[in-house]
Amino acid sequence: MHYHLIGICGTAMASLAGMLKARGHHVTGSDQNVYPPMSTMLADLNIEVMHGYAPQHLEPAPDIVVIGNAMSRGNVEVEAVLNRRLSFQSQAETVKREFINGKRSLVAAGTHGKTTTTSIAAHVLEVGGVHPGFLVGGVVQNFNSSFRVTDSDYFVIEGDEYDTAYFDKQSKFMHYLPELCIVGNIEFDHADIYPNLDAIKLAFRRLMNLVPGNGRLIAGWDDANVRDVVNNFAGKLHTQIETFGLGDDCRWQARDIDFSGEMTRFTVTRDGASWSEIETPLIGEFNVRNCLACIVAASAWGITPEKIKQGLRTFENVKRRMQIRGRERGVTVIDDFAHHPTAVRATLEALRAKQKEGRIVAVFEPRSATSRLKIFQADYARAFTAADIIIIADVFKSQNTANTTNELLDTAQLVRDIAASGKPAEMIAEVNDIVRRLVQILRPADTVAIMSNGGFGGIHDKLLAALREMT
Q1: In a domain, 318, yes or no
Q2: 3-state SS assignment for residue 255
Q3: Are 263 and 140 within one domain?
Q4: Are 52 and 119 in the same domain?
Q5: pLDDT of 405 higher than 50
Q6: Same domain for 404 and 435?
Q7: Separation between Cα atoms, residue 162 and residue 377, nearest integer Å
Q8: Would you call 226 exposed, middle or buried from its count of C-beta atoms within 10 A (0-12, 13-18, 19+)?
Q9: Which 8-state DSSP code applies to residue 396?
Q10: Is 194 helix (H, G, I), strand (E, B) or coil?
Q11: pLDDT grade for 228, boundaries at 50, 70 and 90
């Protein structure tokens, strides 16, 4: 079949394009934002990408048009699809029809950690011998890919709570037919589409209601909102519930956590009895929880404790999740996707737990649809406590920023609030100016944690180059 993807260079859409190509379909696409790394990946896959949007991109007529969730009415190519009555569907619906129907599906969901959890699960299941297909919102370094298509009966997918398309406003994860469903945490996010926390909870409640009776809901019991949704659903969830966490009232628990060595170590108990000793290169309590969720899932699918332990020990993490981009002159430069205040705080606390000497310098770009808004102004002021020095970039400007009716984050006020807590903080608008300032203040043994959900003007490479050039 001929699939044409409108908005093909989005992370999820480009990965879908690669999956469809691997399945043997003819794939084309269009986008006005054609740049690496997605454009490079598509070129390597020999997938034709047309620049901009135009009706002629639909000639000859494709069998199915996939419309990305960044597209809206008024887009000339979308309008041509409708006027010509071409068959169209969303990215999530296409994944369901082509890659999940009839499979045993593991959906890893939650406001935070779902990319890492999905990636861990895919690797652990691979080590366990089931050779799963997968789709992740990041590059899994063990596979050097964000997707894989196999003949296995198993499929692992990141469960995104964001809406599906302009014509389908339900969460993407509602399409993914979970046999196993991990819900690690629930917090207010995506303020551009969800009005409040209750709306987020309702979305996750609907996801939980998809899990079959012979499946498992794997619930992060340390999270009060997960508990609330599950408990308010008591008697109505027609599936088996497995709870996990660091607290004493979970079925699966992580105890005796030790971050002091090169590897994080902890003991897993099930129903109060020792299950196994675990080692992982990941740091932070949140990653212990991510590993624990995958232990529960892999066990439910019959993977042995020995294989699970091997998978966790050899996991290489996801690009842009506490990824070390380089070291120059004793300075470590970290790239992290954190943008929600809870994720920012967790990232910095995890780095603090491992930092034996030197300072942690946090550099944050408010770039995501939610982080650009003032709704989390007070939360961000408290999110940088574990850092020694904080630099806040200007709010990323995009078309959505210009069109928003919500008040934007006040970065100048944010810096004043952070400084009032006793932390050195400054607001620097431009990337090149941030790099110049960093070169002035950095010392050997310092760690720079650069946090953004976008490219941030290539700041990582610019900083490493500037450090190399110091005399």
Answers
A1: no
A2: strand
A3: yes
A4: no
A5: no
A6: yes
A7: 22
A8: buried
A9: P
A10: coil
A11: very high
- The domain that contains 386 carries what CATH number? 3.90.190.20
Mark which of 57, 89, 121 sits at the end of a domain.
89
Q: Sort 132 into a burial class: Cβ within 10 Å, 0-12 / 13-18 / 19+.
A: buried
Predicted pLDDT of residue 401: 44
**Residue 335 shares a structural domain with residue 303:** no
Q: What is the dihedral of CA 132, 150, 28, 141, to 10 degrees?
A: 50
Cα-based distances in Å from 305 to 98, 111, 179, 467: 32, 28, 21, 45
Query: CATH no. for residue 11?
Result: 3.40.50.720
* H or E segment and range at residue 335: strand 331-336
Predicted local confidence at residue 402, as pLDDT: 44
State the Cα–Cα distance between residues 292 and 252, nearest whole angstrom: 8
Asked whether the predicted pLDDT for residue 205 surpasses 70, the reply is yes
List CB contacts of 86: < 8 A, sequence separation 6 or more.
Answer: 58, 61, 62, 65
Q: Which CATH number covers residue 144?
A: 3.40.1190.10
Residue 295 resides in a domain: yes
Q: Do 132 and 264 sit in the same domain of this protein?
A: yes
- Measured in whole angstroms, the distance separating CA 82 from the mean position of its chain's CA atoms is 32
Contacts of 201 (CB under 8 A, 6+ apart): 186, 225, 228, 229
For tokens 């954190």, the residue is 338
Signed CA dihedral, 137, 142, 145, 151: sign only: negative
Range of the domain at 84: 2-89
Q: Which two tokens stand for residue 140?
A: 């899994």
One-letter amino acid at 242 equals E
Calculate the average pLDDT of the chain. Answer: 90
Chain center to CA of 192: 18
161 against 37, higher pLDDT: 161
Among 313, 340, 358, which residue terminates a domain?
313
Q: What is the pTM of this model?
A: 0.83
- Letter string b/e over residues 375-406, b meaning 16 or more CB atoms within 10 A of that residue's CB: ebbeebbebbebbbbbbbbbbbeeeebeeeee
pLDDT for residue 404 is more than 70: no
Whether residues 98 and 84 share a domain: the answer is no
Q: What 3-state class would DSSP assign to 227?
A: helix
Residues whose CB is less than 8 angstroms from the CB of residue 182 and which lie 6 or more positions away in sequence, other chains included: 106, 107, 108, 109, 110, 114, 117, 121, 159, 218, 220, 293, 294, 296, 297
Residue 392: inside a domain, yes or no? yes
Q: Do 355 and 306 share a structural domain?
A: no
- What's the CA gap between 80 and 454, in Å, rounded? 31
Instruction: Please give the backbone phi and psi of residue 314, each rounded to the nearest 5 degrees, phi first.
Output: -105, 10
φ, ψ of residue 98 in degrees (nearest 5) = -85, -30
Q: Is residue 185 part of a domain?
A: yes
In this structure, the answer to whether residues 303 and 346 fall within a common structural domain is no
* Total domains present in the chain: 3
The answer to whether residue 320 scores a pLDDT higher than 80 is no
Provide the token pair at 345.
């705080």
